User: Fold this.
Amino acid sequence: MASDFQAGNTPPPEDGGPSVWLVFKGNKILVDPDNRPPRASGPGELGLELDATHYLGLWQGRPAYTARAPEEAPEPEGLAWHGLYGLFLGWPQDLFGLGARAKQILAWEQGNAFCGACGAAMDEVAEERARRCPACDYLAYPRISPAVIMAVQKDDKLLLARSPRFPAGRMSVLAGFVEAGETLEECVAREIREEVGVEVTDITYFGSQPWPFPDSLMIGFICQWAGGEIEIDGREIVEADWYGPDDLPAIPPSSTIARGLINQVLGVEKLPKGTPWNPEKHKLRAPDER
Ligand SMILES: [Zn+2]
Assistant:
């Protein structure tokens, strides 16, 4: 199946038809009654005054734009401002990717209004997605922060842990940001060692997921326990243990790569070796959803 989205930097000529609008107001996005980005000829038809409009590419053959609405913007008739997190996770993967791109471009634009090197006001570069300082030529591209997310397997069990940010009872696989100069595999081993004190081996790539909260790319791995007893750091992790398929606590929803890793390791849904994870293709289901 062809992708619904084709990225681009230059809008096609105006043809009088509608465009797709990903309009953000703080941590909310404008949606139609189907919880999808609305289609409109422009901000006027949406009844909004918008800042920072950026062309994203073609969505289902129509131009797609992202823009920011002021904090006091009203709710246009028939549309609603919806919180991002739950909404994004319910969207099909292509639309999730478009939403992630839109949100990250707006955050990048806002964070690079002024040059990080000399402080002058930055200009938009026409031919690529970049901002340039007219005084010192410093270039800023949208920043992506790579993070690893990994399932540690020990026999038929899986290590799940709770970050202090999770509600009580909710557990997930471990994750952490990649540091400068580190390979992904080194990062996986270091994060696991630091957070729960165990050593791992056989670190194998699983798949990836953009994670626009605020600007990460989650890179998933499965690895095998090689030694050590669980010893939590008490700071990033407040609870951790080995779990099997029959004694799972509350875990992240099916559209997350965290859940994809859990399902794969516990055999809820095994992907053929070498098949990258894709939440659309694999229709991952929770044990309680089967
Ligand atoms: Zn500068």
Remarks:
- The chain has three domains: 5-111, 112-143, 145-289.
